[in-house]
């Protein structure tokens, strides 16, 4: 019989730091994907659709794979715990294909682009298969009231990783290899120092199909979680329209060098890092919904300003505004979904959050890439503004007071399944 989990006690600062350390390595991965893969592939192709799809931290097949991985981690029963086995397998495989990528770029021109794209596709997929269980480990070991604070520290480690890899005066090939090595080292450290606390897992399922069927039933009852997933989808459309093309946008609008354009991405990360601790303090006095609304609102203002910028200094202003907003939404976004679903299913809904991004980002990158090909890079901020408006409208409909009743009914449904 499924019993309600006892709320975990607050974790200590050292445990928070050790848990967050793996996100330092993950941060280097996100910087490689979002800021460097575009210029890297531009040596082999100028097609904006290809550049956008590859400069993306989610891939389309993740729409199916991520919830299955999340659901499997909810039901995993091993000596290592529920989440750690997935981190132990998929992160090293991701690092392996990252290391292979620069080698693939040295073969004959006929096969170079397909092989490099294949490597990027595989290491992106494998990364997400390890990252979702890693993220789901946080609500397993922390009570709801501590999750924004832990997420703030975790986010700072990720931002430090992004800034670190972008500041290193090395070639993109070396940066990719260094990112892979750092990913392995930081994940191993987190696995060694952070033990999963005993939790009530869902019963092991005999098939992936049954796992998915039982888990998907929850979407009928968990209306607040369903709306949150809609918010993540709309926000994914917005962010997916900008990040893969940001470096190229700066180059085309200001005619600056690639290194100067990359500094704008660093500026975004720096002000996100400044916004995170501010948001962490605000989270003590407000709800996840209000904090997320503040973050998305600031990003919307930045996107509207982005429609008119012409100089580096104007772009810096946009990066400051967007960075502060990104800091707030980073602290509030994931803790929100963990408070809207049963703790026993948090892995599955973490996977569904990735599903929203996996559908939204390739879709919007393809559309935005097409619009760029026939127009200009400035269109990215128009698409971003539209998606953020939808996300904010959905966010106004979230009612945290309804979530507790929905979770209780869902627990009874799981018990009778």
What report would you give on this structure?
With 417 residues, this protein is mainly α. Helices cover 78% and strands 0% of the residues. It contains 16 helices and no strands. α1 runs antiparallel to α7 (172-193) and α3 packs antiparallel against α14 (346-374). 54% of the residues are buried. The mean pLDDT is 86.
Helix content: over 70%
Top CATH class:
Mainly Alpha
- Give the radius of gyration: 20 Å
Got a strand count?
0
What's the architecture in CATH terms? Answer: Up-down Bundle
CATH level 4 superfamily: MFS general substrate transporter like domains
Low-confidence stretches: none
Number of helices: 16
Q: What is the average per-residue confidence, as pLDDT, rounded to a whole number?
A: 86
Q: What is the fold named in CATH at topology level?
A: Growth Hormone, Chain: A
Q: How many structural domains in the coordinates? A: 1
């Amino acid at each position: 019989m499924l019993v309600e989990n006892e709320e975990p006690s607050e974790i200590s600062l050292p445990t928070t730091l050790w848990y967050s350390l793996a996100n330092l390595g993950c941060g280097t991965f996100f910087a490689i994907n979002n800021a460097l893969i575009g210029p890297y592939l531009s040596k082999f192709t100028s097609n904006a659709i290809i550049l956008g799809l590859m400069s993306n931290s989610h891939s389309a097949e993740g729409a199916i794979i991520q919830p299955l991985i999340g659901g499997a981690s909810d039901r995993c029963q091993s000596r290592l715990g529920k989440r750690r086995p997935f981190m132990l397998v998929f992160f090293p495989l991701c690092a392996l294909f990252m290391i292979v990528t620069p080698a693939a770029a040295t073969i004959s021109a006929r096969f170079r682009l397909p092989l490099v794209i294949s490597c990027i596709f595989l290491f992106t997929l494998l990364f997400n298969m390890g990252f979702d269980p890693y993220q789901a480990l946080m609500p397993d070991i922390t009570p709801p009231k501590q999750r924004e604070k832990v997420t703030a520290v975790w986010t700072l480690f990720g931002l430090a990783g992004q800034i670190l890899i972008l500041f290193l005066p090395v070639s993109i090939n070396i940066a990719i290899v260094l990112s892979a090595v750092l990913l392995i080292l930081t994940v191993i450290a987190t696995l060694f120092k952070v033990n999963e606390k005993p939790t009530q897992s869902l019963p092991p399922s005999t098939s992936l199909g049954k796992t998915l069927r039982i888990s998907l039933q929850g979407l009928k009852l968990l209306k607040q979680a369903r709306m949150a997933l809609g918010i993540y989808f709309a926000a994914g459309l917005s962010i997916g329209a900008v990040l893969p093309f940001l470096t190229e946008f700066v180059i085309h609008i200001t005619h600056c060098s690639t290194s100067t354009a990359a500094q704008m991405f660093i500026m975004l990360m720096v002000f996100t890092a400044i916004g995170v601790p501010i948001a962490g303090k605000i989270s003590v006095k407000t709800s996840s919904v209000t904090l997320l609304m503040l973050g998305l609102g600031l990003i919307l203002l930045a996107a509207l300003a982005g429609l008119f910028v012409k100089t580096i200094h104007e772009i810096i202003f946009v990066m400051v505004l967007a960075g502060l907003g990104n800091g707030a939404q980073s602290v509030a976004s994931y803790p929100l979904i963990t408070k809207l679903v049963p703790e026993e299913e948090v892995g599955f809904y973490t996977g569904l959050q990735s599903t929203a991004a996996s559908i939204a980002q390739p879709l919007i990158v393809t559309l935005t890439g097409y619009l760029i090909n026939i127009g200009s890079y400035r269109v990215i901020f128009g698409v971003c503004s539209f998606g953020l408006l939808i996300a904010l409208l959905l966010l106004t409909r979230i009612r945290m007071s309804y979530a507790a009743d929905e979770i209780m009914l869902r627990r009874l449904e799981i018990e009778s399944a």
